Amino acid sequence: MHILPRETLSLDAAEQAVDLGHAPADVVLLSFTDSDLSAAAAAWRTLPQPRPSLRLASLARLRHPMSVDLYAEEVLAHSRCVVIRLLGGVDYWRYGAEEVSALCRSQGIPLALLPGDGGEDARLAALSTLPAHVLARMASCFRHGGTAHLALALRLAAEAAGLGSAPAEDPAPLPAFGRHDFGVTAEGPDAAIVFYRSHLLAADIAPLEELAKALAAQGLKPRGLFAASLKDAAAARFIAAELGAMQPAIVLNATGFSARMQDQSPLDAAGCVVLQAVLSGTSRAVWAASSRGLSQADLAMQVVLPELDGRLPTTAIGFKAEGEALPGLDFRPTRLLPDPEGIALVAARAAGWARLRATPTDERRLAIILSDYPGAIGAGQTGHAVGLDSFASLQALLEDLQAGGYAAGTPPGAASLAHALTRAEAVPFLNLQAYHALFATLPESLRNSVCAAWGEAEDDPALHAEGFALPLLRLGKILVAVQPDRGLRKDRRASYHDPDLPPRHAYLAFYLWLRQGFGAHAILHLGAHGTLEWLPGKSAALSAACAPAALVGGLPVIYPFIVNNPGEAAFARRRLGAVTIGHLTPPLKSAGHHGAAAELERLIDEYAAADGLDARRTALLRQDILRRAEETGLLAESAIPAGLPEDETLAKLDAWLCDVKDMQIREGLHILGRAPAGRDALLATLTAANPTAPVLAGRLDACAAAERDAVLAALDGRFVQPGPSGAPTRGRADVLPTGRNLYAIDPRAIPNRSAMVLAEKAAAELLRRHLQDHGDYPRSVVLDLWGSTTLRTGGEDLALALLLLGARPVWDDGSARVSGIEVLPLALLERPRIDVTLRVSGLFRDTFADQINLFDEAVRAIAARDEAADWNPLAAAARGLEGAALRRATARVYGAAPGTYGTGLEADFALQGWKNAGAAYLQGSSAAYGKGLDGAEDADGWAGRVAAADAFLHSQDHAETDLLESPDHATHEGGFAAAARLLGGKAALYHLDTARPDAPRLRAVEEEIARVVRARAANPAWISGMMRHGYRGAAEIARPLHSLHAFAATLPCRLDRQFDLIFDATIGNDAVCNFIHTENPAALEAMRSAFRAALRDDLWRPRRNSVVAELGS
Fold first, then answer.
1. Which of 121, 194, 534, 954 is deepest in the core (most CB within 10 A)?
2. Torsion-angle region of residue 779: left (phi > 0), alpha (psi -120 to 50) or beta?
3. What are residue 73's phi and psi, to 5 degrees?
4. What CATH number did the domain enclosing 295 receive?
């Protein structure tokens, strides 16, 4: 038996190696926690002389293996005792813990590895060299904290080093939890501030003290509660009891991580909104310069994990700052400095929620905002919300509000609401003089950027003689409005997600008026998604000058959001502080067959019945089927190669028809807080995806009431229980019932183990199909990775990329988080390695910085291997290079420039020609990421990867959408196709369908388009389902055409048949055409315009000459 060598690399190797320059000392204390180190420094000064020499260092600076090796060699090897306190256990510093343990054992140096969370840790104890009773006593010292206990810990370390003895008695312990008086006199509703005991012991609570003062200034009464850990059972009981008795108006939590145990957090007992205040682990200067706002560690510990408890992110109220070096310690203690700007933002947010909670329902003024999403259409998409009938949902919401005691007037019907907001005259709401006064209250940098982009307010097209005007509808104290364009109307699609473009004056006027003129108590944005959360500013922990924070101010935001979109929901949560209430996806059903496909299915059934019984009839039927398939265009749609034997062609045609028939399509749209119309069909879909899930029917039936109750609870300022996001039809029974505050998974656990298992199936399918199509494995592949998809699947696409390279993640045993990669030997792969390039979305880039580093580390490790060029194209590309040339040659992660989003094809690119589209895609994706790259422009490198690609792959992970659902797919898949064509590349374009993750299906992009057009876009069953939804249904019927137009403008293949099918099913069908004309005439005109443009640009050659006349001029 031979053991194949495998190379394993830690993710910490992606960090920068540093030399701390420390001199040796008797005792060395290392910790991730600055409060440990600062407290130890203070305690050391209290020790009696002669005291041992001491070195203190942060483990955050010793992440890189080379840093560990250097520190071990120059400092630890010469010490007489080493004490290391590990927050998170071995898995957070595995390489260091194992190397230091080996060093201390070999040299007889006493070593204490102590858990940072107060519990016991057998793995750390096994790596230590000190006796268990000493470890327990040391751990107790750190757990209790304070100068006296840290002094005892140092004396225990000195005793282990043979430098004196420690006292037998321990100091009296300080309380592990309790109340804290901030010394602020205030009256008003209670505002609980929950924070770590360690900050109190280190006298490092200045940001919390300033926050207490700011809350008092807002009319709230701050009340402090501290605990060593919210996961300590006794502390959790105390916090829950205190909050339950207090019943505060708001809770501000400054502890990190999740405190959820057995589906409860002690903070839930308050029954109110919980805001997460951030105590940043970096300096203010680092935060100010960062487009992300927070480090990966801060984002995980103080945003992502607290979201699991339903806490709402805010911003940083304090930043780390180094003090003067302490003599004799080689150590600069760090302290938290209050940030007045952040404290003011958090206090305003707290006051906003408290005000909402205190206001009687019949006095609350609510602003309900609908999106005006442009898509690729430019008209007829007012009120767009993914999967939601927004106007029927608006009607339902108004009825619920009226029943709940709100002054909501008499709620009109959905059709009347749609008419009022899409066809009525704009209503003046704010005059110019009042706007100037409000504009002057904004931060100067924001005001300057707005004027630089748009000029003076007087130049805004939305300014009428009476002032700024927008479509508005007042119903009692409820205001319903369509969100204004953030830019000029003609550029609305290009500007929708533009992170650099500040909003124009009319946009500012609207949101400033909501707060100061209308006097809104809360904003409810109805459905995914609007533009407010996409305005310029940081991704998380926003500054006062970030546009979303400046416009929202302290207003509570409630945001019903489709449950299968975790990425964009996270953006709304983190940039607006929104409660993102998950709502159900539309019901699905099998597409079935219609028209010629239904006829062929009948003929094939007859053929199957006759086969083996009547040879003559069988032959006639076979010929008839193939003749009809060719005449109706179905043979061309199926992309079956010409020249195959008749039996094989018939078998492939039958398989294709089954594939189309079984495709899951939406049966209408969801209505917020109402039971799905296709409840039984949806239940059948869910059960098929997860047959072992218990009580699915009960969970599904609970969704309607849960959605209603959650919206009303949020509008009461009450706590909304957290819940996971994901695609129900992919087997995610845990996302039901909906009506919970959405959260996403911990990015550090991506890709997870199950994703790797499923990715193996996807890899096999990709290699099989490419081998079948081209006779060989691909040497170079570009994978298109999206953030929301990664969050839904646990990282299946990233896992696929690693597998194709010939690598796998390494997971920590205890936490299941990814800690590194393992390079698999070629003998185990039994195929050549594939050179994989990732094109990552902006959301992926912002959320998964560690995963980008992980993949980059795998690329560089594989490029450095001594393997033949035929078996390792990466190594061949890097051979003989070094330094900057090697770094450029191994760049394999590209995307939009830092702080920007999209592919560069955000305008009406279908009208600009494929060459312009290809050039825009190349330019918009040319920022390189990875170690030392950090989004640097690398146009030549990206163009080289596109030109060299043998295949491009985009995956679609659930059946609740498809590639004609929005133009986003065309900008990515079509954009790449145009770019490759521009460069002379010939990459195969693949669309991976993993809606059934255990049975992935790979299709060419043109095959997938043909399938979606026949099964959905031109399917009378789907169209009739949408016709139940009036204006919104008409808008949905129009959408696939514009995506098809975009694909036709960028792909090298022709899509005439698909244009014909959609035309015949819509404008060519009198009933459907009349419906769209009646309900949404703007959508009908947009469709006519798209068809005419396709004709003009020779993208469509209709089979009927009458089409031109039917379209009109």
1. 194
2. alpha
3. -70, -40
4. 3.40.50
Please tell me the predicted confidence (pLDDT) of residue 745. 83
Q: What are phi and psi of 694, to 5 degrees?
A: -80, 155
**Position 376 pLDDT exceeds 60:** no
CA 812 to CA 8: how far, in whole Å? Answer: 13
Which residue reads 């018939």 in tokens?
A: 650
155: Cβ–Cβ under 8 A, 6 or more apart, which residues? 47, 164, 165, 166, 167
785: enclosing H helix or E strand: strand 780-785
Give the strands of the sheet with 936-937, arranged side by side: 936-937, 927-928, 893-895, 835-840, 780-785, 951-956, 988-993, 1001-1004
DSSP class of residue 1067 equals T
Structural domains in the chain (count): 6
Exposed e or buried b per residue across 118-150, where buried means at least 16 C-beta atoms within 10 angstroms of its C-beta: beebebbbebbbbeeebbebbbbbbbbbbbbbb
Q: Which residue has tokens 């400092």?
A: 75
Cα–Cα distances (Å) from 605 to 592, 610, 625, 640, in that order, read 15, 9, 11, 20
First to last CA, the chain: 77
Rounded Cα distance between 537 and 876, Å, is 42
Residues 436, 530 within the same domain? yes
State how far the Cα of 189 lies from the Cα of 658, in Å rounded to an integer. 63
In this structure, of 109-113, 135-139, 490-494, 526-530, the range with the lowest mean pLDDT score is 490-494
Which of 662, 686, 705 finishes a domain? Answer: 662
Residue pLDDT, tens place only, 7-49:
656 555 556 788 899 999 999 999 988 889 988 999 999 999 9
Q: Which of 632, 662, 692 is the last residue of a domain?
A: 662
| Amino acid code (one letter) for 1060 | D
* Mean model confidence pLDDT for the chain: 92
The model's pTM is 0.91
Number of Cβ atoms within 10 Å of the Cβ of 772: 9
Buried (b) or exposed (e) across 18-47, using 16+ Cβ within 10 A?
eeeebeebbbbbbbbbbbbbbbbbbbbeee
Q: How far apart are CA 1113 and CA 851, in angstroms?
A: 52
CA distances from 864 to 857, 887, 891 (A): 11, 12, 13
Q: Say what the pLDDT of residue 226 is.
A: 97
In sequence order, the β-bridge partners of residue 893 are 838
Which tokens is 50 given?
Answer: 């002669």
In a domain, 706, yes or no: no
Residue 982 and residue 899 share a domain: yes
- Using an 8 Å Cβ cutoff, are 1038 and 394 in contact? no
Quote the Cα angle for 598-604-607, to 5°: 150
99 located within any domain:
yes
Residue type, 577: G
Handedness of CA 227, 230, 231, 233 (dihedral sign): positive
For 575-623, the pLDDT digits (tens) are 999 999 999 999 888 999 998 899 888 988 888 888 767 778 888 888 8
Residue 1056: predicted pLDDT: 96
The range of the structural domain enclosing residue 462 comes to: 364-372+384-555
